[in-house]
Amino acid sequence: MKTNYHIYLLLGIILIFPLGLSAQFEGSYMPIKFEGPIPEDILQRTEAKTLSEISQNEGDLSENEAREFFTISNYALRQAFLTGNVFFNDEISEYLNNIVDHLLFQEPELRSQIKVYATRFSTPNAACWRNGTIFFNISLFPYLDNEAEVAYVLAHEITHFKKKHSLQQFKRSSRRQAGLFAKGQELDRLFEELKFSRSNELEADLAGLELLKGSAFDIRAAEGALLSLREIDVRPSKEPTLDLRALFGVENLKIDSADIVTYEELEEELEEELKKRDKEKEGEKKEKSKKEDSKYKDEDFATHPSIEDRLNAIKEELSSPDMKIDTTGKLLFLQGEDRFRYMRDLTRFENIKKYYENYRYAHCLYLSLLMLKKYPDNSFLTLMAMKSFYWISYHGKHYVKNDIIPDAYRYSKYSFGLFLGYMEKSSSLDVRKMANQYSKAKMENEAFAKNDKIIFWRAKILEINREEEEAEELFQKIADQYPQSDYYLHVKNLLEKE
Ligand SMILES: [Zn+2]
Questions:
Q1: Rg for the chain, CA atoms, rounded
Q2: What is the dihedral of CA 76, 154, 335, 24, to 10 degrees?
Q3: CA of 164 to the centre of ligand 1 (A)
Q4: How far is the C-alpha of 239 from the C-alpha of 442, rounded, in Å?
Q5: What is the model's pLDDT at position 292?
Q6: C-alpha span between 294 and 259 (Å, rounded)
Q7: Distance 225 CA to ligand 1 centre (A)
Q8: Which CATH class for the 2-240+302-323 domain?
């Protein structure tokens, strides 16, 4: 009964949001701005905050330990905010906090200690800080399929806080400093890599499941969430694999150079490389597990649990008789499916922006192209695709080669692997030509042809293709017709120099 009452509460939230939210991405996209008052828990002076936390510490730590624990934690949290990668007063964080409201409906005391922020650090994950602050990286969001999966990830993180896992972790590491675990460098390194111990992670998974069970969310989403997380290891996006031609969305994007391979050849080549790598990995794994078995007897420190281990544990739990799954009235979306889809696209747009700012042009181009499948008239995406195409051309194809891309992404049967393979096999001249053909096709869109930013980057791509005359015409066009343009002064200077 309680649950039903709560669903009505949430329905209240849903009704506030208009329908057809994603429609607003059709023409363009305005990135999220950092606006409004900075949240109080960040503004609070670190020292005062730390002192109050030390005084509230109830015998879990000695006074010295408490001082160290809270000082480091508050300092690090503040530093994280100062990097500008933590959103505040934004709709993604609001969406996530609504979910926590629901999950902790019956635990107001705990709820008051948890605060979720959407963040733009690059690793697709979520993390819980020692004081109950949860960071949810926007790069994780697009991997998840529904709101219940998001809820499960949050429930897992809440459990880390509730069960004081970071305290346990801290105590273990101070014992290590005292020499108890100082066996050698490898173990040190292991500790560095280890976030929470294996048993802490599995406990967070199972207790997270319990939390979900008490909510209106469908608990089967727990398995779904882990399956979704598994995708992170193999590709940067969960979109269906696309043929490259379909990806570029330009008919006859064809390069005449002799060293270009066909799509079919490329696929075959990648398949071969993939097999080779799988074999090598298999060998490495055997070596590694042999070493680890003899070294670390304590299973708790053996390794961070693999996603497969976590999946198996959840599956087992879900099928146990006392779990009794009654999914009547259970939901995958509490704030509406439309709202979820809107949030997922919003995070995709923000990810694209982040990749561009971090010079990750291959990711930026690929993800922009994917999103353009859905929003072909979006000028933000078109601009992002053209700009990253330009910089890849500018730096030469080695730029793609040297980008920080996991091997598993690079040599994969998914379209990102194919895309990278294609860019790498193409000569630098070919890449420039591709950028040229792509941007030329985009200029056929009436709205794009009138967009000063798109005109500017079309001109830049022409320039790099040694079509200076045509480029100058476009620069002149901006100088004559777009005095409000961000590029106006730049273009004026450029034209005067010549
Ligand atoms: Zn965890």
A1: 26
A2: 50
A3: 12
A4: 23
A5: 52
A6: 50
A7: 13
A8: alpha beta
- CA 154 to centroid of ligand 1, rounded, Å: 10
Picking from 356, 345, 382, 375, the residue whose alpha carbon sits closest to that of residue 91 is 345
Structure tokens at 240: 């269906």
Q: How far is the CA of 332 from the centre of ligand 1 (A)?
A: 22
Instruction: Band the pLDDT of 441: cuts 50, 70, 90.
Output: very high
Summarize pLDDT for 88-101 with one digit per residue, the tens.
999 999 999 999 99
DSSP string, 341-388: HHHHHHHHHHHHHHHHHTT-HHHHHHHHHHHHHH-TT-HHHHHHHHHH
Distance 219 CA to ligand 1 centre (A): 18
- Which pLDDT score, from 0 to 100, does residue 118 have? 96
Residue 453 Cα to ligand 1 midpoint, Å, equals 43
**DSSP state for residue 232 in the 8-state scheme:** G
51 CA to centre of ligand 1 in angstroms: 27
Centre of ligand 1 to C-alpha 456, Å, is: 46
CA of residue 492 to ligand 1 center, whole Å: 54
pLDDT tens figures, 335-392? 999 999 999 999 999 999 999 998 999 999 999 999 999 999 999 999 999 999 999 9
Q: Give 372 Cα–ligand 1 centroid separation in angstroms.
A: 34
How close is the Cα of 157 to the center of ligand 1, in Å? 6
Q: What is the pLDDT of the chain when averaged over all its residues? A: 83
Residues 43-65: pLDDT tens digits? 777 777 788 888 877 777 788 88
How many angstroms does the Cα of residue 196 sit away from the middle of ligand 1? 7
More confident residue, 296 or 75: 75
Give distance in angstroms: CA of 197 to centre of ligand 1: 9
Give the Å distance between the CA of 305 and the centre of ligand 1: 10
Cα 298 to averaged position of ligand 1 atoms, centre (Å)? 19
What DSSP string runs through 432-481? HHHHHHHHHHHTTSHHHHT-HHHHHHHHHHHHHTT-HHHHHHHHHHHHHH
| Furthest-apart CA atoms within the chain: distance in Å | 79
Burial of 205-243, coded b for 16+ CB within 10 Å and e otherwise, reads: bbbbbebbbbbbbbbbbbbbbbebbebbeebbbebeebe
Which tokens is 364 given? 């930026």
- The whole-model pTM stands at 0.86
Residue 253 has pLDDT above 70, yes or no: no
253, 438 Cβ separation under 8 angstroms: yes
- The ranges assigned to domains in the chain are 2-240+302-323, 244-284+359-497
Does residue 120 have a pLDDT over 60? Answer: yes
What is the 201 CA–ligand 1 centroid distance (Å)?
A: 5
Cα(380)–Cα(443) distance, integer angstroms: 14
